[in-house]
Structure formats: structure tokens, C-alpha cells
Amino acid sequence: MSDLDAFRTEIRAWLEANCPAEMREPVSDEDDVCWGGRNFKPKNEAQKAWLDACVARGYTVPDWPKAYGGAGMSPAEAKVWREEMARIGARPPLSSFGIWMLGPALLKFGTEEQKVHYLNQIARGEIRWCQGYSEPGSGSDLVSLQTFGEDRGDHWVVNGQKIWTSYADKADWIFCLVRTDKANKYQGISFLLFDMATPGVTTRPIKLISGASPFCETFFDNVVVPKSQIVGELNRGWDVAKYLLGHEREMISGAGGGDRLNAIGAVCARNGALHDPILRAELAMFDVDALAYAAMGEKFLDEAKVGRAHPAQPNMMKYAGTELNKRRHELLMSAGGSTALEWESNETGGGKPSRSWLRTKANSIEGGTSEVMLNVVAKRILDLPGA
Ligand SMILES: Cc1cc2nc3c(=O)[nH]c(=O)nc-3n(C[C@H](O)[C@H](O)[C@H](O)COP(=O)(O)OP(=O)(O)OC[C@H]3O[C@@H](n4cnc5c(N)ncnc54)[C@H](O)[C@@H]3O)c2cc1C
């Protein structure tokens, strides 16, 4: 038995003993997702037990070093962990912007003190983070951002406004891009961390087309941020921001993976929609593309393992994964027929298909739009003239 096989046996046995049956059910509403944070209230005992068991072993962030709350798994071991979780349909014990975005940036740019402090908090799910990048007028052209941090010796005083800040009203802390030099566009931005409870921070939820309010306008009015809360060098926050965006795009691209045809097949089995030859042809095309997407993901993972990842790969994955997920939901709506359009009926669980379908429209905007992803692919991968 190879070391990896032995590791798989150990992980399988541990999951069998520690992952409660309720945590192997598909996520069906927002409460099923464990976001952690100061105000987190577990939905049930099983959710809490699953989180605690994983925190104790470093399994909320299995590939982070043990000193920072992880389990120190190698990339190959982490892949085994993901496969064994998927095999039993286990829910992630903890979902957070800290794990997906800030953590990787801190691992690369943080001081040792910041890593020990913030990464362990993230791994334990103690602090919920939000991302303060976009501003009114600065989305795709993020580098034009205006929120300003005025130098006052041992601290900055931050004034400005962010927009589309996901879960800002629920987050404990924010990782935020702040201009600290007005004369220098790219090298005049710093990456700051601060508590959302700091005086002068306010949020106002924005309602989405799906009826939910997952994001906010966020206002900073003379917010005091100590100088120790900068990540990376002064005025070099753009480097940290770009690196983090790569991880964000990888995370969002995950929407393309997972279930290929099961959910759509289940709808068709209920209402006989498969009789429609056009729908059948569209399903077949979708499945081929979903397989190609999965193969591309595997290839990129292998390239990353041997240090040959192209820096623009997350852009490709983000474009492909989000466009695929939008198609998946278009097909679910087509298969569901007029019932799927019901907004509040019991049969649709309060409009789940249509609300999810509308939510996917944002997939190709959040974290950078599809048009911008294609620009990057044209320029950095295809090297097209004039791109
Ligand atoms: C659900 C959701 C959650 C989000 N969460 C967060 C968050 O937590 N924190 C945060 O900071 N931001 C967040 N955002 C904001 C997101 O990052 C921006 O919406 C995105 O970067 C696009 O910026 P914009 O909305 O200003 O659009 P714009 O940049 O104004 O773009 C408008 C249109 O112009 C196109 N366009 C712009 N520039 C180009 C170009 N150079 N070439 C071709 N086409 C172009 C775009 O593709 C788009 O179609 C979120 C957005 C959504 C939808």
C-alpha cells in the first residue's frame, strides 16, 4: 500500500467516524452553510460538531501549515481529502472569504505575526471577513479607486465608499483597498485590514433581482486604522490585491464543477421533459463541456503541483466555470417548464429554481466580468495582437 493509499484509508475512517449524517445532505438553504464569525449561530448540533471536529484536526484548511491552523497536507493529500469528502457528499465544515481569499494572500504577503494571528482565527471560523475592493465607478477599472487613507503618524484615517461588498452587514472584519498616495495610480494603493465595528463604518444592504440582499454599500467616515494592520508594503497593495483576485477567481470558477446532470435529470424524471429532442441535444452539449471543464481543472491542478501554472489560468477557469454554471441553470429552468418559474409555491420550495437561476446571472460579473476575463486570456495566454 502506498503512503497515499494509507492516507486515504485513514481519512475515510476518520470521515466515517466524524462526519454526521446531516452534514452529508446537500445544502438546501443559506443556514446550511457554516460561515463562522462572532455572530454565527449553528443551525443544529450536527453543524457545530462537524465544525469542531474539523477545527481540532486542521481540516477546515487542510493544506495550510499546522502553525496557522491547518493540517499541513501536501497537494496530493489535499486532493485525497477533497475526493473523500465528495465521495460521501460531505458539506464543507466552514465556508469563508478568509479561507478562499484573504488566507492565501496572508500566506504570501503577511508578516509572521499576522499569519499566526489572523490565519488561526480564520481556520477556527472565529472572524468572518468581507472584501472591500469595488467602488462606485471602480469595478473592472479597480485601480481607479478613490477611498483614501490619510497618514496620521501611527494610523491612517480612512474616508470613502465601497460597493457590492458581499455580506458586509454580517462580516466582522474587512480586507480593504485604500489609496495612500494620490499621485501614483498603481503604486499608491495599500491593503488594509480592519474591524467592521470600528467607529465610522456603516453598511446599507442592496437588494438583488433574486429577492436576496447578499451585499451592501459600505461607507467609511474618518475610520482609524492602525499602521500595524497593513498587509504587504505601503503603496504596494495592488500586488496583494491581484494575487488575492487569482484565488477569488479560482473559488468562483468552482461553480462550474460538481453535479453534471443529476439535478437536471431528476427534474426531467419527474415531468417527462426529456421527450423534447432540443432539450436532449442541449443536455448532451452541456455534459460534454462540463467534462471538458473538469479535465481542464485537473490539468491546471497538475501543472500547479509541479510549479508550471500560468498566472492567467484562474481567468480561464473563472470564465469557463461561471458561463457553464449559468448554462446549467438555464437548462434547469427549461427542464422545469412553467413550474420552475413559480416564485413562492410549495412545489418550488419558495421559488428555489428561479431564484438560483437569477443568482447565477451575477457569476459572470462578481470577481471580474467575463469580458474582462476574455481580455486577459487574449492578452496573456493567446498573446493576440492589439489585445
Ligand atoms: C454578486 C456579486 C458579489 C460581489 N461581491 C463583491 C465583494 O464582496 N467585494 C467587492 O469589492 N466587489 C464585489 N462585487 C463587485 C464586482 O467585483 C464588480 O461588479 C465587477 O468587478 C464589475 O465591476 P462593475 O460592476 O463596476 O462593472 P463595470 O466595470 O462598470 O462594467 C460594466 C460592463 O462593462 C464591461 N467592461 C468594463 N471594462 C471592460 C473592458 N476593459 N473590456 C471589455 N468590457 C469591459 C464589463 O464586462 C461589464 O459588462 C460583487 C459583484 C457581484 C455581482
UniProtKB/TrEMBL annotation:
Domain Acyl-CoA dehydrogenase/oxidase N-terminal: 45-126
Record domain Acyl-CoA dehydrogenase/oxidase C-terminal: where: 235-382
Assigned keywords, A-Z: FAD, Flavoprotein, Oxidoreductase
Recorded superkingdom: Bacteria
InterPro entries: Acyl-CoA_Oxase/DH_mid-dom, Acyl-CoA_Oxase/DH_mid-dom_sf, AcylCo_DH-like_C, AcylCo_DH/oxidase_C, AcylCoA_DH/ox_N, AcylCoA_DH/ox_N_sf, AcylCoA_DH/oxidase_NM_dom_sf, Mycobact_Acyl-CoA_DH
Cofactor: FAD
Keyword Transmembrane: no
Pfam families: Acyl-CoA_dh_1, Acyl-CoA_dh_M, Acyl-CoA_dh_N
Acyl-CoA oxidase/dehydrogenase middle domain residues: 130-223
Keyword check for S-adenosyl-L-methionine: no
Gene3D superfamilies referenced in this protein's UniProt entry, alphabetically: Acyl-CoA dehydrogenase/oxidase, N-terminal domain, Butyryl-CoA Dehydrogenase, subunit A, domain 2, Butyryl-CoA Dehydrogenase, subunit A, domain 3
Family: Belongs to the acyl-CoA dehydrogenase family.
Protein name: Acyl-CoA dehydrogenase family protein
Gene source species: Novosphingobium cyanobacteriorum
